[in-house]
Structures are given as C-alpha cells and as structure tokens.
Design goal:
210 residues, mainly beta, Glucose Oxidase, domain 1
C-alpha cells in the first residue's frame, strides 16, 4: 500500500514565520572524528515546518500539547483541493462529503515556492468553520503556514476553530496526493506545556464500503 509522507523536512532551509526562531542543528560528535557515534542537537520554534497547534497557542486557557487526545491525529481524513489565496466561503465546501472522514486536509496552494514565506494565503471564513463543525469535523489541516491571514493580529479563524472544538495542522505538504479518503497519522510530540509541536504526518489510502 502506498504511503504519502505529507511532512516538510526540518533543515536549515526551513522558512520560519517572520521573526520566529529558525531551525538549527549542531553536530556534537562524529564517528569520522574518532567518536563511537554520530550525535547532534537541534533547536526550533514549535511551529516550524509541518506542525500541530495546541489550543494554548491562541488561548491562554486552552489545552497544551501533552493533554490533547491522540485519536484527534489518527483516523479517516478527506484530502480536497480548493486552490486559492483568498477567503474560502461555505459554498466551496458544500460538495465535500464528511460522513466517514471527520478530518479535512485542504490543498490551497499547489506547487507553492516553499523557499520563501508567502505574502498571502487562503483562509476559511468563520462561517465555513461553523459549517464544518456542524458536520462533526474535528481536525483541519492546511498546506500553508497558518489558518489565519499572514498579517492577522486577532486570529479570528484560530478562535473560531477553538470555539468549534476543531484542531489544527499547518504546513502540510499535499502536492502529489490525489484528492480522496485516507487514513491520517500525524502525531505531535508530548511536549509538556507546549503550544505546538512538529509532526511527521503520513496518509494511507482507504476505501469505505456501505
């Protein structure tokens, strides 16, 4: 069975949110220099690359990373493409069927240049978030750095998602993944008090029968 890796690599080329900490890796020991092992350390923002947001990221009273239920990040997911750099209304979602897939992964920027931070990205409207919640969607994944506009200071979509009880994956790499139904596995690290975490997200195709 084909497995799609929908994670971005973390390396010195990873583009952080403007002003946020970059990913850095330092080698401590090298076999080539006489050590018994190769050993390195790294530092990074919790929101670099492909990552999960904890509600605490945008709400001081929200749950932190280690408290989130693992079943949020494992299970049936629908991959859909709505290519845009504008607000996505409810009407763009109405043809999607979430009956067996309570997780939505949206490809909005196919083929985008990931060597630079985008000037503009697609976001869902608040009404679209409420529409998804009414259909029992519990996780939203996007292929851009945020569910809110890059210049937003009030984060209305993050907060609408929080009110709806939906969880967030950002910076997915969905290029090359055909739209359809999959099993998602996208576990965050168990970071105590964490506001977010890098994830290794993968998809496996699944078929549903009635």
């Amino acid at each position: 069975m084909k497995i799609y890796d929908i994670s971005l690599p973390l390396d010195e080329g990873t583009v952080p949110w403007p002003g946020d900490a970059e990913f850095q890796k330092k080698t401590s020991l090298r076999i080539a220099e006489g050590a018994s092992v190769n050993l390195s350390s790294f530092s990074t923002s919790s929101h670099n690359g492909t990552h999960a947001d904890a509600p605490f990221h945008y709400d001081s009273h929200g749950e932190t990373m280690e408290r989130l239920a693992l079943e949020i990040f494992i299970g049936p997911a629908l991959v859909a493409e709505i290519a845009s750099d504008r607000e996505i209304p409810v009407s763009a979602l109405e043809s999607l069927d979430f009956a067996d897939t309570p997780r939505l992964l949206l490809r909005t920027a196919p083929g985008r240049d990931r060597s630079r931070f985008p000037d503009r990205i697609a976001t869902l409207s608040v009404g679209a978030i409420e529409w998804l919640a009414a259909r029992s969607v519990r996780l939203l994944g996007v292929d851009v750095p945020s569910v809110d506009a890059v210049d937003s200071k009030t984060l209305p979509i993050h907060h609408a998602i929080g009110r709806a009880g939906i969880h967030i994956l950002e910076n997915l790499q969905l290029d090359g993944v055909p739209p359809g139904r999959y099993e998602l596995i996208a576990l965050p690290l168990k970071i105590s008090g964490g506001d977010g975490s890098p994830i290794r997200a993968v998809l496996r195709p699944i078929e549903f029968t009635s």
